[in-house]
Fold these 2 entries.
Entry 1:
Amino acid sequence: MPVPRLQSRAGFTILEVGMASFVLAMAIATAVTVLQHGLRAVDTARNMTLAGQIMQSEMEILRLQNWAQICALPEKATVDPTTTITSGNSTSLDSTLSTIASRFTCTRTVADITGRVNIKLITLQVRWSGVDGRSHSVSYQTRYAKDGLSDYFYVAH
């Protein structure tokens, strides 16, 4: 009569379970980190777009002014973004736009260009803080010339 063999118990050892748990925990931690970085990138991109719209709105206001009005502007001024971003109808959309725009700070600088008496350098800079508290800024520069295209509409010919 043959001797019965001892049946081995199939299963995982505590070491194997520990290693699997460690790998799973690392995968979850990595996924959360990647998700945080992705959300931060989306927030930065969204705010960069809004900052660009604020600068574009302010630049359009400046383009409608003549040379005398540009020369009368202070050398450095803070522009209220809530007045440049509006639907113009005093609706609930305006209050939402004002709330969003109030997170941004816009600074306008008008400076003379050395050696060029009939040209002004205009710089717009918009600053904001992201959801993670980091400070961001974007700037835009343009030149405004006396008797240029923008000033043409205000000169009698």
Note: Residues 14-63 form the longest helix (50 residues).
Entry 2:
Amino acid sequence: VQVPTLEEVLARFPGVPMNIEIKAENPPSVIEPFVELLDRYRMRPHVLVASFSDTLLFSFRAAAPDVLTSLSPLEVAQL
């Protein structure tokens, strides 16, 4: 059994709504390549991006403000 890459999933299921959780040790380094993948496969309108990292979500929102995201842990705590 082989786990597909995100790019393989996006290529195989174009336009399918997806909830994608970003996990990264160095958040800023993953944002640009992730947004580029979303653009390459025209998936911005079809994804909701989630993360348990406030920093990562805030960075992602700055790079792709038109993409839906979950609330960050800080935002949930403020509710």
Note: The helical segments are 6-12, 27-40, 54-63, 73-78.
